[in-house]
Amino acid sequence: MTVMIVTSFGATHRYPDQDMMRLTFRAFLNSIRNQTGKDLRLFISHHDKPKGVDCDDPFIYWCPVSGSPDHQKTLVPRNYPKTPMDLIDVDTLDYGISMTDMSRKTYNSVMWAGKYAYRERLSSFWMLRMDSDDLLANDMVALLHDAQRQGLRAIYNRTCHMFDPKRREIAIYAYPYSTTCNALFYELKGDQFIPDWYYHCNDHTSFASMVQKDGIVHREIDFTFCIVTNSGNSISERPEIAREKNTVKIALTESLIKRYGLESLL
Description:
alpha/beta; eight-stranded mixed β-sheet
């Protein structure tokens, strides 16, 4: 069962801390490479690729949106396609604020993943949403394969780990709502996706309530990913762990380092 991971990556010149951008993106990719389950694809919407980062693995699909050589413009569909066969007309718009850029790129990655599924005739698959500066637990893809066999159709969490690479500290972090890292099982019926193609393009905080409302068989689990904080590049402008709410610092153990591939941030 293929797991398709969708994410976004900002135009490289817009990251305030260039070294940390490369460090965290490299760690993100390594956490994908280290998955114990290997049937995965990664779709990254981008303006340009970061220099100095090995990021051309066969499982990575770069999904361009740049609308100008200086990456100040973005190609945005006039109407998001309803089926993977629909043609797409685009407008060239200003880059916009970081949140707008991330939203546009989420839609773009989801479209690329859906079109891939249609082209490859995948009758069913998982789609997992991630931020490109966070780290995926190395057993997440395997966990989704097992969840499918159990009849589950949605996975989300509200509790995860948080790691500060500047201070080399880790904590347990409890969200009051579903995190950005959530997964949904899709089926392709003819040229229609069930559930809706753009389910992951909604606000991630509502994912848990949406799957419950829609009667999707779901499970809440903990510690499927690790948020990288205090990097200087997060849209959420996360501070050091000591200043975060709802966190409990814990010891940085070898098992946690292995789980998220944290050695690349130490």
